Amino acid sequence: MEVTARALLRRLAIEQAETRMPSLVAMVSRDGEPVWFGARGTVEGADPTPDTQYRIGSITKTLVGVQVMRLRDEGLLDLNDPLSKHLAGTPVGDATIAQLLSHTAGLTAEPPGPWWERTPGVGIDALAGALDGGTARHRPGRRFHYSNLGFALLGELVARHRGVPWPQAVRSEIIEPLGLNDTTARPREPHARGYAVHPWADVLLPEPEHDAVAMAPAGQLWSSAADLARWSAFLAGGREAVLSRATLAEMREPATLDDGDTWTGGYGLGIQLMRHRGRRLAGHGGSMPGFLALTWADPADHVGVLCMANSTYGLRASLVTDLLDILDAHEPPIPGAWSPSPADPDLLELTGPWYWGPAAYVLRLLPGRDLSLGPVGGPGRSSRFAARADGTWLGLDGYYAGETLRLVRRPDGTVDHLDLNTFVFTRRPYDPGAPVPGGVDEAGWR
Protein backbone atom coordinates (compact mmCIF):
# COMPACT_ATOMS: atom_id res chain seq x y z
CA MET A 1 0.00 0.00 0.00
CA GLU A 2 3.00 2.34 0.49
CA VAL A 3 3.50 2.87 -3.26
CA THR A 4 -0.24 3.28 -3.76
CA ALA A 5 -0.47 5.78 -0.91
CA ARG A 6 2.31 7.91 -2.35
CA ALA A 7 0.67 7.94 -5.78
CA LEU A 8 -2.69 8.92 -4.24
CA LEU A 9 -1.09 11.64 -2.11
CA ARG A 10 0.78 13.03 -5.10
CA ARG A 11 -2.47 13.38 -7.08
CA LEU A 12 -4.11 15.08 -4.11
CA ALA A 13 -1.15 17.43 -3.65
CA ILE A 14 -1.23 18.39 -7.33
CA GLU A 15 -4.92 19.23 -7.03
CA GLN A 16 -4.51 21.35 -3.91
CA ALA A 17 -1.54 23.26 -5.33
CA GLU A 18 -2.86 23.84 -8.85
CA THR A 19 -6.41 24.77 -7.87
CA ARG A 20 -5.30 26.69 -4.74
CA MET A 21 -7.57 25.03 -2.18
CA PRO A 22 -7.08 26.38 1.36
CA SER A 23 -7.47 22.78 2.50
CA LEU A 24 -8.34 19.56 0.73
CA VAL A 25 -9.00 16.09 2.11
CA ALA A 26 -9.69 12.81 0.35
CA MET A 27 -10.41 9.25 1.39
CA VAL A 28 -10.54 5.89 -0.37
CA SER A 29 -12.46 2.98 1.15
CA ARG A 30 -13.03 -0.70 0.44
CA ASP A 31 -15.94 -2.71 1.82
CA GLY A 32 -16.90 0.28 3.92
CA GLU A 33 -13.51 0.57 5.61
CA PRO A 34 -11.04 3.41 4.93
CA VAL A 35 -7.83 2.24 3.28
CA TRP A 36 -6.27 5.66 2.63
CA PHE A 37 -6.73 9.22 3.86
CA GLY A 38 -4.88 12.24 2.55
CA ALA A 39 -4.92 15.93 3.46
CA ARG A 40 -3.22 19.07 2.17
CA GLY A 41 -3.41 22.63 3.44
CA THR A 42 -4.53 23.60 6.92
CA VAL A 43 -7.72 24.27 8.87
CA GLU A 44 -7.26 26.98 11.52
CA GLY A 45 -3.50 26.35 11.43
CA ALA A 46 -3.69 22.57 11.85
CA ASP A 47 -3.70 19.63 9.47
CA PRO A 48 -7.21 18.43 8.61
CA THR A 49 -8.11 14.99 9.96
CA PRO A 50 -10.71 12.40 8.97
CA ASP A 51 -12.96 13.99 11.62
CA THR A 52 -12.69 17.60 10.42
CA GLN A 53 -16.08 18.89 9.30
CA TYR A 54 -16.76 20.45 5.91
CA ARG A 55 -20.06 21.53 4.47
CA ILE A 56 -21.22 18.86 2.00
CA GLY A 57 -23.83 20.90 0.11
CA SER A 58 -26.02 18.87 -2.21
CA ILE A 59 -24.83 15.54 -0.85
CA THR A 60 -27.55 16.42 1.68
CA LYS A 61 -30.05 15.50 -1.05
CA THR A 62 -29.05 11.83 -0.85
CA LEU A 63 -30.10 11.67 2.81
CA VAL A 64 -33.37 13.42 2.05
CA GLY A 65 -33.92 10.98 -0.82
CA VAL A 66 -33.38 7.98 1.45
CA GLN A 67 -35.85 9.45 3.96
CA VAL A 68 -38.50 9.88 1.24
CA MET A 69 -37.98 6.27 0.15
CA ARG A 70 -38.46 5.15 3.75
CA LEU A 71 -41.87 6.84 3.64
CA ARG A 72 -42.63 5.03 0.39
CA ASP A 73 -41.63 1.66 1.82
CA GLU A 74 -43.88 2.30 4.83
CA GLY A 75 -46.83 2.87 2.49
CA LEU A 76 -47.21 6.53 3.39
CA LEU A 77 -46.76 7.69 -0.19
CA ASP A 78 -46.42 6.44 -3.74
CA LEU A 79 -43.71 7.72 -6.05
CA ASN A 80 -46.39 8.48 -8.64
CA ASP A 81 -48.32 10.66 -6.19
CA PRO A 82 -48.56 14.31 -7.20
CA LEU A 83 -46.91 16.65 -4.74
CA SER A 84 -50.30 18.25 -4.03
CA LYS A 85 -51.48 15.04 -2.34
CA HIS A 86 -48.94 15.59 0.43
CA LEU A 87 -48.12 19.30 0.22
CA ALA A 88 -51.01 21.45 -0.92
CA GLY A 89 -50.95 25.06 -1.97
CA THR A 90 -48.01 25.24 -4.39
CA PRO A 91 -48.30 26.02 -8.11
CA VAL A 92 -46.23 22.90 -8.91
CA GLY A 93 -48.49 20.33 -7.26
CA ASP A 94 -48.83 18.28 -10.47
CA ALA A 95 -45.20 17.16 -10.28
CA THR A 96 -44.82 13.66 -8.87
CA ILE A 97 -42.61 12.57 -5.97
CA ALA A 98 -40.49 10.52 -8.37
CA GLN A 99 -40.01 13.51 -10.66
CA LEU A 100 -38.89 15.68 -7.76
CA LEU A 101 -36.41 13.02 -6.64
CA SER A 102 -34.97 12.64 -10.15
CA HIS A 103 -34.96 16.35 -11.10
CA THR A 104 -37.43 15.74 -13.92
CA ALA A 105 -40.30 17.76 -12.41
CA GLY A 106 -39.43 20.76 -14.59
CA LEU A 107 -39.04 23.13 -11.62
CA THR A 108 -36.76 26.14 -11.64
CA ALA A 109 -33.27 25.38 -10.36
CA GLU A 110 -33.25 28.09 -7.68
CA PRO A 111 -35.98 29.63 -5.50
CA PRO A 112 -37.17 33.20 -6.04
CA GLY A 113 -35.47 35.97 -4.12
CA PRO A 114 -31.77 36.69 -3.48
CA TRP A 115 -29.12 34.00 -3.90
CA TRP A 116 -30.32 31.56 -1.26
CA GLU A 117 -26.91 30.00 -0.57
CA ARG A 118 -25.43 33.29 0.72
CA THR A 119 -28.40 34.87 2.52
CA PRO A 120 -30.44 33.95 5.60
CA GLY A 121 -33.16 31.43 4.81
CA VAL A 122 -36.92 31.81 5.02
CA GLY A 123 -39.57 29.41 6.29
CA ILE A 124 -41.62 27.12 4.09
CA ASP A 125 -44.67 29.40 4.13
CA ALA A 126 -42.65 32.33 2.79
CA LEU A 127 -40.91 30.12 0.24
CA ALA A 128 -44.13 28.53 -1.01
CA GLY A 129 -45.86 31.92 -1.08
CA ALA A 130 -43.20 33.29 -3.42
CA LEU A 131 -43.76 30.57 -6.02
CA ASP A 132 -45.89 31.37 -9.06
CA GLY A 133 -46.70 30.20 -12.55
CA GLY A 134 -43.10 30.71 -13.62
CA THR A 135 -41.77 28.22 -11.08
CA ALA A 136 -42.23 25.43 -13.63
CA ARG A 137 -39.67 25.83 -16.41
CA HIS A 138 -40.46 22.62 -18.30
CA ARG A 139 -43.30 20.14 -18.64
CA PRO A 140 -43.01 17.56 -15.82
CA GLY A 141 -41.20 14.47 -17.06
CA ARG A 142 -39.85 16.11 -20.21
CA ARG A 143 -36.17 16.42 -19.31
CA PHE A 144 -33.56 16.56 -16.58
CA HIS A 145 -33.38 20.00 -14.98
CA TYR A 146 -31.60 20.14 -11.64
CA SER A 147 -33.74 21.80 -9.00
CA ASN A 148 -32.69 22.80 -5.50
CA LEU A 149 -36.23 24.02 -4.98
CA GLY A 150 -37.58 20.53 -5.62
CA PHE A 151 -35.64 19.13 -2.67
CA ALA A 152 -36.79 21.95 -0.43
CA LEU A 153 -40.34 20.76 -1.12
CA LEU A 154 -39.35 17.14 -0.47
CA GLY A 155 -37.87 18.15 2.87
CA GLU A 156 -41.17 19.73 3.85
CA LEU A 157 -42.99 16.59 2.69
CA VAL A 158 -40.83 14.59 5.13
CA ALA A 159 -41.61 17.05 7.93
CA ARG A 160 -45.36 16.84 7.29
CA HIS A 161 -45.35 13.03 7.47
CA ARG A 162 -43.05 12.74 10.48
CA GLY A 163 -44.40 15.66 12.45
CA VAL A 164 -40.88 16.95 13.13
CA PRO A 165 -38.44 19.08 11.09
CA TRP A 166 -36.69 17.07 8.39
CA PRO A 167 -33.23 17.24 10.06
CA GLN A 168 -34.69 15.63 13.17
CA ALA A 169 -36.26 12.82 11.15
CA VAL A 170 -33.05 12.23 9.19
CA ARG A 171 -30.97 12.24 12.37
CA SER A 172 -33.09 9.72 14.25
CA GLU A 173 -33.82 7.40 11.31
CA ILE A 174 -30.61 7.56 9.25
CA ILE A 175 -27.68 9.43 10.81
CA GLU A 176 -27.75 7.83 14.25
CA PRO A 177 -28.41 4.24 13.10
CA LEU A 178 -25.46 4.49 10.69
CA GLY A 179 -23.16 6.03 13.30
CA LEU A 180 -22.60 9.26 11.37
CA ASN A 181 -21.65 11.11 14.53
CA ASP A 182 -19.93 14.00 12.72
CA THR A 183 -22.85 14.76 10.39
CA THR A 184 -24.84 17.76 11.62
CA ALA A 185 -27.15 20.47 10.35
CA ARG A 186 -24.87 23.24 11.60
CA PRO A 187 -21.08 23.15 12.05
CA ARG A 188 -19.34 21.93 15.16
CA GLU A 189 -15.64 22.19 16.02
CA PRO A 190 -13.28 21.28 14.53
CA HIS A 191 -14.64 22.46 11.20
CA ALA A 192 -13.25 24.17 8.14
CA ARG A 193 -14.20 27.78 7.42
CA GLY A 194 -15.41 28.52 3.93
CA TYR A 195 -13.42 30.84 1.69
CA ALA A 196 -13.36 32.30 -1.78
CA VAL A 197 -9.91 32.41 -3.37
CA HIS A 198 -9.11 35.56 -5.37
CA PRO A 199 -8.80 34.69 -9.07
CA TRP A 200 -5.61 36.72 -9.60
CA ALA A 201 -3.95 36.74 -6.19
CA ASP A 202 -3.27 34.28 -3.39
CA VAL A 203 -5.62 35.87 -0.88
CA LEU A 204 -8.82 34.64 0.75
CA LEU A 205 -12.26 36.09 1.37
CA PRO A 206 -14.44 34.48 4.09
CA GLU A 207 -17.79 33.26 2.76
CA PRO A 208 -21.00 33.70 4.79
CA GLU A 209 -22.76 30.70 6.33
CA HIS A 210 -26.44 30.76 7.23
CA ASP A 211 -29.22 28.40 8.15
CA ALA A 212 -31.04 27.90 4.84
CA VAL A 213 -34.27 27.03 6.72
CA ALA A 214 -36.79 25.92 4.03
CA MET A 215 -34.02 25.45 1.44
CA ALA A 216 -31.86 23.46 3.87
CA PRO A 217 -32.79 20.02 2.40
CA ALA A 218 -30.97 21.10 -0.77
CA GLY A 219 -27.57 21.58 0.91
CA GLN A 220 -27.49 22.24 4.64
CA LEU A 221 -25.51 19.37 6.14
CA TRP A 222 -21.93 19.26 7.40
CA SER A 223 -19.91 16.07 7.62
CA SER A 224 -16.43 14.60 7.91
CA ALA A 225 -14.39 12.39 5.60
CA ALA A 226 -14.89 9.43 7.94
CA ASP A 227 -18.67 9.90 8.01
CA LEU A 228 -18.93 10.52 4.29
CA ALA A 229 -17.05 7.28 3.61
CA ARG A 230 -19.60 5.42 5.76
CA TRP A 231 -22.44 7.13 3.91
CA SER A 232 -21.01 6.21 0.51
CA ALA A 233 -20.63 2.61 1.65
CA PHE A 234 -24.29 2.65 2.65
CA LEU A 235 -25.37 4.00 -0.75
CA ALA A 236 -23.43 1.18 -2.41
CA GLY A 237 -24.32 -1.70 -0.11
CA GLY A 238 -27.16 -0.63 2.14
CA ARG A 239 -28.23 -1.61 5.62
CA GLU A 240 -31.60 -3.26 5.95
CA ALA A 241 -32.44 -1.52 9.23
CA VAL A 242 -32.26 1.86 7.46
CA LEU A 243 -33.42 1.02 3.93
CA SER A 244 -33.77 -2.26 2.08
CA ARG A 245 -31.12 -3.17 -0.46
CA ALA A 246 -33.83 -3.54 -3.09
CA THR A 247 -34.98 0.03 -2.50
CA LEU A 248 -31.41 1.34 -2.66
CA ALA A 249 -30.94 -0.51 -5.95
CA GLU A 250 -34.12 1.19 -7.18
CA MET A 251 -32.69 4.57 -6.19
CA ARG A 252 -29.54 3.80 -8.21
CA GLU A 253 -31.44 2.95 -11.38
CA PRO A 254 -31.03 5.66 -14.04
CA ALA A 255 -34.22 7.72 -14.13
CA THR A 256 -32.78 10.36 -16.44
CA LEU A 257 -29.52 11.39 -18.11
CA ASP A 258 -27.91 14.79 -17.98
CA ASP A 259 -25.65 14.08 -20.99
CA GLY A 260 -27.83 11.91 -23.18
CA ASP A 261 -25.39 11.77 -26.09
CA THR A 262 -22.68 9.98 -24.11
CA TRP A 263 -24.35 8.66 -20.90
CA THR A 264 -21.53 9.35 -18.54
CA GLY A 265 -23.75 11.17 -16.05
CA GLY A 266 -27.30 10.69 -14.90
CA TYR A 267 -29.65 10.73 -11.95
CA GLY A 268 -31.66 8.12 -10.10
CA LEU A 269 -33.97 8.84 -7.17
CA GLY A 270 -32.02 11.32 -5.07
CA ILE A 271 -28.69 9.86 -6.20
CA GLN A 272 -26.32 11.03 -8.93
CA LEU A 273 -24.88 8.41 -11.27
CA MET A 274 -21.68 8.31 -13.30
CA ARG A 275 -20.03 5.82 -15.62
CA HIS A 276 -16.25 5.76 -15.65
CA ARG A 277 -14.00 3.17 -17.31
CA GLY A 278 -16.36 0.29 -16.80
CA ARG A 279 -17.46 1.42 -13.36
CA ARG A 280 -21.01 2.50 -12.63
CA LEU A 281 -20.74 4.88 -9.70
CA ALA A 282 -23.40 6.20 -7.33
CA GLY A 283 -23.06 9.24 -5.10
CA HIS A 284 -23.35 13.00 -5.37
CA GLY A 285 -21.47 16.25 -5.62
CA GLY A 286 -21.95 19.21 -3.34
CA SER A 287 -21.14 22.90 -3.42
CA MET A 288 -21.99 25.81 -1.17
CA PRO A 289 -20.23 29.18 -0.92
CA GLY A 290 -16.86 28.29 0.55
CA PHE A 291 -17.16 24.51 0.16
CA LEU A 292 -16.93 21.75 -2.44
CA ALA A 293 -17.40 18.01 -1.98
CA LEU A 294 -17.65 14.85 -4.07
CA THR A 295 -18.35 11.27 -3.11
CA TRP A 296 -18.72 8.20 -5.31
CA ALA A 297 -19.02 4.49 -4.63
CA ASP A 298 -19.09 1.44 -6.88
CA PRO A 299 -21.79 -1.02 -5.74
CA ALA A 300 -20.15 -3.78 -7.80
CA ASP A 301 -16.90 -3.98 -5.79
CA HIS A 302 -17.73 -1.72 -2.81
CA VAL A 303 -14.93 0.75 -3.49
CA GLY A 304 -15.59 4.37 -2.53
CA VAL A 305 -13.78 7.67 -2.93
CA LEU A 306 -14.49 11.17 -1.67
CA CYS A 307 -12.94 14.61 -1.38
CA MET A 308 -13.86 17.83 0.44
CA ALA A 309 -12.42 21.33 0.22
CA ASN A 310 -13.15 24.73 1.74
CA SER A 311 -13.21 26.87 -1.38
CA THR A 312 -16.09 28.21 -3.44
CA TYR A 313 -14.66 27.31 -6.84
CA GLY A 314 -11.95 25.44 -8.65
CA LEU A 315 -11.88 21.79 -7.51
CA ARG A 316 -11.75 19.48 -10.53
CA ALA A 317 -14.22 16.60 -10.64
CA SER A 318 -11.52 14.43 -12.21
CA LEU A 319 -9.74 14.23 -8.85
CA VAL A 320 -11.95 11.47 -7.49
CA THR A 321 -11.94 9.40 -10.67
CA ASP A 322 -8.16 9.82 -10.91
CA LEU A 323 -7.87 8.45 -7.37
CA LEU A 324 -9.97 5.46 -8.39
CA ASP A 325 -7.79 4.92 -11.46
CA ILE A 326 -4.63 5.01 -9.31
CA LEU A 327 -6.14 2.43 -6.96
CA ASP A 328 -7.06 0.19 -9.89
CA ALA A 329 -3.59 0.50 -11.41
CA HIS A 330 -1.66 -0.22 -8.21
CA GLU A 331 -4.06 -2.48 -6.33
CA PRO A 332 -6.72 -3.90 -8.67
CA PRO A 333 -9.57 -5.73 -6.96
CA ILE A 334 -9.12 -9.45 -6.37
CA PRO A 335 -12.26 -11.50 -7.08
CA GLY A 336 -13.66 -13.47 -4.21
CA ALA A 337 -13.04 -17.20 -4.21
CA TRP A 338 -15.64 -19.31 -5.97
CA SER A 339 -17.35 -21.88 -3.81
CA PRO A 340 -20.08 -24.40 -4.60
CA SER A 341 -23.65 -23.56 -3.73
CA PRO A 342 -26.36 -26.11 -2.87
CA ALA A 343 -28.99 -26.61 -5.55
CA ASP A 344 -32.44 -28.16 -5.39
CA PRO A 345 -32.60 -31.21 -7.69
CA ASP A 346 -35.86 -30.01 -9.28
CA LEU A 347 -34.22 -26.73 -10.26
CA LEU A 348 -31.02 -28.40 -11.41
CA GLU A 349 -33.07 -30.32 -13.99
CA LEU A 350 -34.28 -27.02 -15.45
CA THR A 351 -30.81 -25.72 -16.27
CA GLY A 352 -29.32 -25.84 -19.75
CA PRO A 353 -30.70 -25.08 -23.22
CA TRP A 354 -34.15 -23.72 -23.88
CA TYR A 355 -35.47 -22.32 -27.14
CA TRP A 356 -37.60 -19.32 -27.96
CA GLY A 357 -38.62 -20.37 -31.43
CA PRO A 358 -35.30 -21.03 -33.21
CA ALA A 359 -33.24 -18.90 -30.79
CA ALA A 360 -31.11 -20.84 -28.32
CA TYR A 361 -31.08 -19.69 -24.69
CA VAL A 362 -29.46 -21.11 -21.58
CA LEU A 363 -31.03 -21.17 -18.13
CA ARG A 364 -28.59 -21.03 -15.23
CA LEU A 365 -29.18 -21.54 -11.54
CA LEU A 366 -27.94 -18.74 -9.29
CA PRO A 367 -27.32 -18.95 -5.53
CA GLY A 368 -30.55 -19.65 -3.72
CA ARG A 369 -33.37 -20.36 -6.13
CA ASP A 370 -32.75 -17.42 -8.46
CA LEU A 371 -32.29 -17.93 -12.20
CA SER A 372 -30.69 -16.23 -15.19
CA LEU A 373 -31.82 -16.62 -18.77
CA GLY A 374 -29.77 -15.42 -21.71
CA PRO A 375 -28.95 -16.15 -25.37
CA VAL A 376 -26.32 -18.66 -26.43
CA GLY A 377 -23.74 -17.04 -28.70
CA GLY A 378 -26.08 -14.66 -30.45
CA PRO A 379 -28.36 -11.65 -30.01
CA GLY A 380 -31.16 -11.78 -27.49
CA ARG A 381 -32.50 -10.55 -24.19
CA SER A 382 -30.87 -11.46 -20.91
CA SER A 383 -32.44 -11.15 -17.48
CA ARG A 384 -32.06 -12.39 -13.94
CA PHE A 385 -35.06 -13.69 -12.05
CA ALA A 386 -35.72 -13.75 -8.30
CA ALA A 387 -37.60 -16.70 -6.83
CA ARG A 388 -40.99 -15.94 -5.28
CA ALA A 389 -42.89 -17.86 -2.66
CA ASP A 390 -45.64 -18.90 -5.11
CA GLY A 391 -43.18 -20.88 -7.25
CA THR A 392 -42.74 -18.24 -9.96
CA TRP A 393 -39.82 -15.91 -10.64
CA LEU A 394 -39.77 -12.12 -10.99
CA GLY A 395 -37.60 -10.45 -13.64
CA LEU A 396 -34.99 -8.17 -12.11
CA ASP A 397 -33.43 -6.42 -15.07
CA GLY A 398 -33.33 -6.06 -18.84
CA TYR A 399 -36.38 -6.48 -21.05
CA TYR A 400 -38.11 -8.77 -18.58
CA ALA A 401 -37.74 -6.56 -15.49
CA GLY A 402 -40.96 -6.87 -13.49
CA GLU A 403 -42.30 -9.71 -15.65
CA THR A 404 -43.16 -13.20 -14.38
CA LEU A 405 -41.43 -16.44 -15.35
CA ARG A 406 -43.45 -19.57 -14.57
CA LEU A 407 -43.13 -23.28 -15.16
CA VAL A 408 -45.92 -24.98 -17.07
CA ARG A 409 -46.17 -28.67 -16.21
CA ARG A 410 -47.63 -31.72 -17.94
CA PRO A 411 -50.28 -33.86 -16.23
CA ASP A 412 -47.52 -36.12 -14.85
CA GLY A 413 -45.86 -33.13 -13.15
CA THR A 414 -42.84 -32.79 -15.44
CA VAL A 415 -42.03 -29.40 -16.91
CA ASP A 416 -43.34 -28.89 -20.43
CA HIS A 417 -42.22 -25.33 -21.12
CA LEU A 418 -41.40 -21.96 -19.61
CA ASP A 419 -43.92 -19.14 -19.89
CA LEU A 420 -42.31 -15.72 -19.76
CA ASN A 421 -45.00 -13.08 -20.12
CA THR A 422 -46.63 -15.01 -23.04
CA PHE A 423 -43.29 -16.02 -24.59
CA VAL A 424 -42.94 -19.82 -24.65
CA PHE A 425 -39.53 -21.41 -24.16
CA THR A 426 -39.27 -25.11 -25.05
CA ARG A 427 -36.63 -27.80 -24.80
CA ARG A 428 -36.54 -28.19 -28.59
CA PRO A 429 -36.75 -25.43 -31.24
CA TYR A 430 -40.47 -24.96 -31.97
CA ASP A 431 -41.40 -28.14 -30.12
CA PRO A 432 -44.62 -29.40 -31.80
CA GLY A 433 -45.71 -30.94 -28.51
CA ALA A 434 -45.73 -27.58 -26.70
CA PRO A 435 -48.39 -24.87 -27.02
CA VAL A 436 -46.29 -22.60 -29.21
CA PRO A 437 -48.37 -19.49 -30.03
CA GLY A 438 -49.55 -19.69 -33.63
CA GLY A 439 -48.84 -23.41 -33.77
CA VAL A 440 -46.06 -25.30 -35.52
CA ASP A 441 -46.18 -26.37 -39.18
CA GLU A 442 -47.30 -30.03 -39.24
CA ALA A 443 -44.69 -30.96 -41.85
CA GLY A 444 -41.97 -29.94 -39.44
CA TRP A 445 -38.43 -28.86 -40.33
CA ARG A 446 -37.46 -29.44 -43.96
From TrEMBL:
The keyword Hydrolase applies. It comes from the Bacteria. Residues 16-316 form the Beta-lactamase-related domain. SUPFAM superfamilies: beta-lactamase/transpeptidase-like. It comes from Sphaerisporangium corydalis. Residues 344-427 form the DUF7586 domain. Keywords: Hydrolase. InterPro entries: AmpC-like (IPR050491), Beta-lactam-related (IPR001466), Beta-lactam/transpept-like (IPR012338), DUF7586 (IPR056008). The keyword Hydrolase applies. This is Serine hydrolase domain-containing protein.
